[in-house]
């Protein structure tokens, strides 16, 4: 049984799905216009209508299949979802005098949706329309100083609407609101990490049987956890780790030691010279990415042929990859992913994707159960092209050597100060800019190194991390002393948006 979330274009819809899973219930995201048949295929116990940028009185606005109201399931509408429920059942929605965006505080709240909440309830608003009249028999169950209709419920207490977003961290007690809805709907909450692991082990054993399984190990948490899952399931597997020469200091040795000690059949390929040769003279970041991707496929395919034949290709595809690549029917195409329909036709393998329905935080929990060391399990995200896209301009052995040492100093100092796990991602960027400096009594030109650290919950948006000034002073001093090619260190204080987390 599941909670089906109908997506009407909100930037927060994935967060709704993740929060439901944090409560140990299974959630599925479908496009807002999914048919009743598509919804029923997921054995729904309840339905949540997400927010979205449209207005319910816009003729072109998205509408759910009206037959969902014949299913008799509990419904929760969030923002646009609330507006649609009110509109559908005969209430009125109007354009507000001004858009309400940001924090608000409930001045009163009642009813089963708010059971267990107490004190000051802060909520996060983001809407341009407001409810001006309720459907017959409905009543208001929460209001704020600025808005007399913040939450509503039907007379039978089976349909609810909230104007705020309970799924975001800016609504501190929002998880309790969602938990109350699950309780009202009678949704099973038995999907624990251990339960999920047992299901995946059973699935992998059934799919693989006596077949040979191949996978690419990058050293990241997704592929490392998948490799451990295959090893724990006892299937015949080979993990190929391609060292493209663009890794962080000591990363290859750490990955090899960790995975082999945990029973993974790991084969490493040292292709650093090949990648550096292919990257010679390339400064454009998109060309770098395509060149690295093409070389990786070629190296991986060559090694697979040498070690083969194989029957299955295991991939660490995650649920967000599927959603963003329109893997779920009706979803909008946001960006393509190399592991969702982007493999070359020469890869004549059947795919094994055990994590296809999981979010990254769920994979991290599985990794903990599989005893993947925290050094890999909790490691900051690292791009597939590696340090190549953290070197602005051409990638050369000299620049790689400089950046690799500087990055190691930055990361090790973060850990030393107890700050590493306080940020979502931290990185160093080697710029092509040279700046005048003084070393001893001599004038010299050194590279300008940019440090970047951000806080985030999912990487979709991010704030620059306000690291202590004494830390920044210490790390800049340490980098310029230990990496003499760097003459100046700057700190990036741009959030996402408008910037991205990586510089390229």
Structure description:
The chain is 32% helix and 25% strand. By secondary structure, it is α/β, with parallel strands linked by helices. It has 3 domains: 2-185, 3-Layer(aba) Sandwich (Rossmann fold); 193-377, Rossmann fold (3-Layer(aba) Sandwich); 396-491, GMP Synthetase, Chain A, domain 3 (2-Layer Sandwich), CATH 3.30.300. The strands form 3 sheets. Strands 2-1-3-4-9-8-7-5-6 form a 9-stranded mixed sheet, sandwiched between helices. The protein has a 5-stranded parallel sheet with strand order 12-11-10-13-14, with helices on both faces. The chain is globular and about 80 Å long. The two termini are 42 Å apart.
CATH structural fold name of the largest domain: Rossmann fold
Which regions have little confidence, pLDDT < 50, spanning 5+ residues? 326-342
Overall pLDDT, averaged?
A: 90
Instruction: Tell me the quaternary state.
Output: single chain
Q: Helix share of residues? A: 25-40%
Rg for CA atoms: 26 Å
Major β-sheet profile: 9 strands, mixed
As for the number of domains, it is 3
The backbone outline, from C-alpha atoms, is globular
The level 1 CATH classification of the largest domain is Alpha Beta
Find the structural class using helix and strand composition.
alpha/beta
- By CATH, the architecture of the largest domain is named 3-Layer(aba) Sandwich
How far apart the termini lie comes to 42 Å
Please identify which CATH superfamily of the largest domain we are dealing with. Answer: HUPs
User: What is the number of strand segments?
Assistant: 18
Strand content: 25-35%
Question: Given the structure, what is the number of helices?
Answer: 14
Spatial order of strands in the largest sheet: 2-1-3-4-9-8-7-5-6
């Amino acid at each position: 049984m599941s909670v089906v979330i109908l997506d009407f274009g909100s930037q927060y819809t994935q967060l709704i799905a993740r929060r439901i899973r944090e409560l140990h219930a299974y959630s599925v995201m479908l496009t807002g216009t999914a048919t009743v048949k598509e919804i029923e295929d997921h054995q729904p116990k309840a339905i949540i209508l997400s927010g979205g940028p449209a207005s319910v009185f816009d003729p072109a606005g998205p509408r759910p299949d009206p037959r969902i109201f014949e299913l008799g399931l509990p419904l929760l509408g969030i923002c646009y979802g609330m507006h649609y429920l009110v509109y559908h059942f005969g209430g009125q929605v109007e354009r507000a005098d001004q858009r309400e965006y940001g924090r608000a505080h409930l001045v009163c709240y009642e009813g089963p949706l708010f059971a267990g909440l107490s004190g000051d309830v802060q909520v996060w608003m983001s809407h341009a329309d407001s409810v001006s009249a309720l459907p017959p028999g409905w009543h208001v169950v929460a209001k704020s100083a600025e808005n007399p209709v913040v939450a509503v419920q039907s007379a039978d207490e089976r349909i609810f609407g909230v104007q705020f977003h309970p799924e975001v961290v800016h609504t501190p007690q929002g998880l309790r609101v969602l938990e109350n809805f699950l309780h009202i709907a009678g949704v099973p909450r038995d999907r624990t990490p251990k339960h999920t692991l047992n299901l995946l082990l059973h699935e992998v054993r059934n799919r693989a049987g006596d077949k040979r399984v191949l996978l690419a190990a990058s050293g990241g948490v997704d592929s490392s956890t998948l490799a451990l899952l295959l090893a724990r399931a006892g299937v015949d597997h080979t993990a190929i780790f391609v060292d493209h020469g663009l890794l962080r200091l000591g990363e290859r040795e750490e990955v090899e030691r960790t995975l082999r000690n945990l029973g993974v059949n790991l084969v490493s390929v040292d292709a650093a010279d090949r990648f550096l040769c292919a990257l010679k003279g390339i400064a454009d970041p998109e060309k770098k990415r395509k060149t690295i991707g093409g070389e990786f496929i070629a190296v991986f395919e060559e090694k697979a042929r040498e070690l083969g034949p194989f029957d299955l290709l295991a991939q660490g595809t995650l649920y967000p990859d599927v959603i963003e690549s329109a893997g779920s029917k009706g979803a909008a195409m946001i960006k393509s992913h190399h592991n969702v329909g982007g493999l070359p036709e020469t890869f004549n393998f059947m795919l094994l994707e055990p994590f296809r329905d999981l979010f990254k935080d769920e994979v991290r929990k599985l990794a903990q159960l599989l005893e993947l060391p925290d050094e890999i399990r909790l490691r900051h995200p690292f791009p597939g092209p590696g340090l190549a896209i953290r070197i602005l301009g051409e990638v050369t052995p000299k620049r790689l050597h400089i950046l690799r040492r500087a990055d190691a100093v930055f990361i090790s100092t973060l850990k030393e100060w107890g700050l590493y796990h306080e940020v979502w991602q931290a990185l160093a960027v080697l710029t092509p800019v040279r700046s005048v400096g003084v070393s001893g009594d001599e004038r010299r030109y050194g590279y300008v190194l940019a440090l970047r650290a951000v806080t985030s919950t999912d990487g979709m948006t991010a704030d620059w991390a306000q690291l202590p000034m004494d830390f920044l002073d210490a790390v800049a001093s340490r980098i310029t002393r230990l990496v003499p090619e760097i003459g100046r260190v700057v700190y990036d204080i741009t959030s996402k948006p408008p910037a991205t987390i990586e510089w390229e």
